[in-house]
Amino acid sequence: MNALIIFLVAMVILVIGYVCYGGWLAKQWGVDPKRPTPAHELEDGVDYVPAPPYVVLGHHFSSIAGAGPINGPIQAAVFGWVPVLLWVLVGGIFFGAMHDFGALFASLRHKGQTLAVVVAENIDNTAKKLFCIFAYLTLLLVVAAFASIVANTFVVSASAAPATNLANEQTAMISVIFIGVAVVYGFVTRGRNIPGPVNIVSAIILIVIMVAIGYNLPLMGIAISLDYDTWMIILGVYILVASVAPVWILLQPRDYLSSYLLYGMIILAIIGIVGASIMGAATDLQIPAFTGFVASNAAFDASTGQQLVDEAGKTITNKAAASGFLFPALFITIACGAISGFHSLVASGTTSKQLDKEGQAQPIGYGGMLIECVLAVISLCAVGFVWSKYAAGGYASPTAVFADGLSQMLACIPGLADVQGLAYALLILAVSAFCLTSLDTATRLARYMFQELWTPVDKKPEELTGVHKFMANPYVATIITVVIGIVLGMTGYSIIWPLFGAANQLLAALALLAVCAWLGNAGRNNKMFFVPMAFMLLATLTSLAITFYQKVTTIMTSGIALAPVLQAILAVLLFVLAIVLAVKGVKTIVATAKKQKASSAE
After folding, report:
1. Which of 33, 185, 192, 527 is least crowded, fewest Cβ atoms below 10 Å from its Cβ?
2. CA angle 59, 64, 69 (to 5 degrees)
3. Do residues 482 and 443 touch, judged by C-beta distance below 8 A?
4. How many other CB atoms are there within 10 angstroms of residue 226's CB atom?
5. Coil, helix or strand for 227?
6. Per-residue pLDDT at 275 exceeds 90
7. pLDDT tops 70 at residue 601
8. SS3 per residue for 222-290
9. C-alpha Rg value of the chain to the nearest Å
10. What average pLDDT score do residues 87-114 get?
């Protein structure tokens, strides 16, 4: 595997995909650049706030990325680099980017409301309620997991190594500075017609200054040293405020500024790939092209293929790798690197309420997903560069693989050998920034879903009374979401986390189904959705069936325990939910097609 050739070929294919397939979709769906967007028609200064395209892209990309496009390809690398690369490119262009673009466009044509409203208006109200409940529970799990991940990158522990504590203090300090500066930036730029180049340059300068200050303050003894529970409570208060505050105060400026940190990470990674390849260090990576249709997360010696065991004779587990059958494991694991249901909630939840012009839906919705594909390819190059250590189970997480692989690549460049430690820290910081932006966006999205669950299709929020009015109140919805999410993150979300991958991809299948039904009802071409939604539904149902079988087997052999019982029950519930919504959606699509065929025959 030659890292540079893989990267360049992937870039060319993604650009062609954007121009050709993305452009074709825009024409088929009738994207109208002159049509007013909900951000202008319903502008309220809180959720509906039009912004320049580069600001909206910053928010959208920062929110959808999370750690998914990094973790997924690295975990799936046990199947070899060929299947991972093929799914990232094919899945990204024909599945994920269309999914994100479609969700964003459908929301724009439904007053910037979420996919739950699209489901209600194009399938039925029962489907809407089921979709709301499922999406809300999925988002609660995202809030719990991402809050826990962020807290762990901030925490200072007496049992941790001094270097780890220092790195966490630096990450926490930079993140806190980011939030403070973002608020000031939001007020300063609000209502001012600042030229795009000036805005971009000032953002980059601020990023450099904030990172420099936050990185060095802990070295001078000025640090925020708190334990896990304290950070979880602080994060709870933060997302409580962030998810109800007007988007121009924090969400837009913070995500916009953070996006340049993330773009910088990508540029740094590309420099590493190019430099290491020119120096001959990344021209023949040892990662296999294909390892087989079944993969194991057991650690092994990359040179001999022999499994590794510890002193007690037990097989060492590779904590950064996935396991299982190629189908469906590859397509569930890679997730954000090719297609992710969470993206549809971001696109239809926050992004659609900020879009200045409808013509920007393609570069932000379709293009934003392809940027994630680029990051996924970079992650594949990173794991390929440290394949021997990865295969031997030498990493505690995929994030560590990503940071170590790219920092080692950079160190191969003459004159940069001493920056490996700094590069590693900055890459970890960037991943933490991904998670923090996704955290408060997920909280706001959960608030939207909770409110729409209590708002009947035929009523406006101001027309609600009684319990419906109380539960649909944005502050009540946010408090309930934050309390449940943070408590779950502090107690035991890991018990049900193994089902998140399947739940997330089920959400993607349902989002494809919803947009397909709407386009059919609108008289537009929706046939490009048939294969992706059927494939994702099949992959998800297969994964849930395998999970149920494995958990029942565990219960029968090891006795009743909370985790396998709960996972088995949830797998059945998700399976039934998927079938019910799929049947309803397919009936709608078929009925619409028959009506249109009969109408055209007349």
Report:
1. 192
2. 130
3. yes
4. 18
5. coil
6. yes
7. no
8. CCCCCCHHHHHHHHHHHHHHHCCCCCCCCHHHHHHHHHHHHHHHHHHHHHHHHHHHHCCCCCCCCCCCC
9. 23
10. 97
Q: Is residue 572 very low, low, confident or very high in pLDDT (cuts 50, 70, 90)?
A: very high
User: In sequence order, what are the residues at sequence separation of 6 or more whose Cβ sits closer than 8 angstroms to the Cβ of residue 509?
Assistant: 341, 533, 536, 537, 540, 578, 582
- Which one, of 342, 350, 296, lies nearest residue 323 by Cα? 296
Q: How many CB atoms lie within 10 A of CB 299?
A: 21
Residue given tokens 């925490």 in the structure block: 155
What tokens does 255 get? Answer: 């995500």
Query: What mean pLDDT do residues 200-212 have?
Result: 90
Instruction: Kindly tell me if the per-residue pLDDT of 381 is higher than 90.
Output: yes
Question: Crossing angle, helix 341-349 and helix 125-154, to 10 degrees?
Answer: 100
Structure tokens at 240: 């409580």
The DSSP call for residue 411 is H
- Predicted confidence at residue 313, as pLDDT, reads 84
pLDDT in tens, 443-469: 999 999 999 999 887 788 888 889 989
* pLDDT tens-digit series, residues 246-266: 999 988 898 888 888 888 889
Residue with tokens 């950064």: 320
CA distance 548 to 569: 8
- The H helix count followed by the E strand count for the chain is 25, 2
Among residues 112, 105, 117, which one has the least CA distance to residue 39? 112
Is 496's pLDDT higher than 80? no
Quick one: tokens of 313? Answer: 């004779």
Q: Which of 157, 153, 145, 159 is nearest to 171 (CA)?
A: 153
How far is 187 from 284, CA to CA, in rounded Å? Answer: 51
For the beta carbon of residue 95, count every other beta carbon within 10 angstroms.
23
Sign for the CA dihedral angle at 556, 557, 559, 565 comes to negative
What mean pLDDT do residues 301-325 have?
A: 89
Span 18-63, pLDDT tens digits: 999 999 999 999 999 999 999 999 999 889 999 999 999 999 998 8
Residues in a beta bridge with 315 = 309
The first and second tokens of residue 370, run together, are 């392809």
pLDDT for the residue 602 = 62
Q: Which helix (H) or strand (E) holds 325?
A: strand 324-325
317 beta partners: 298
Q: How confident is the model at residue 197 (pLDDT cuts 50, 70, 90)?
A: confident
Specify the residue for token string 């080692």.
Answer: 408
What are 103-142's pLDDT values in tens digits?
A: 999 999 999 999 999 999 999 889 999 999 999 988 998 8
Q: Smallest Cα–Cα separation from 374: which of 483, 296, 270, 275?
A: 270
Residue 95, C-beta contacts closer than 8 angstroms, at least 6 positions apart: 338, 339, 508, 532, 535, 536
Which positions ≥6 away from 109 have C-beta within 8 Å?
518, 522
- Cα atoms in the Cβ-side hemisphere of radius 13 Å centred on 367: 15
CA-based nearest residue to 430, from 262, 182, 208, 279 = 262
What single DSSP character describes residue 324? E
Reference 32, options 108, 107, 89, 95; nearest CA is 108
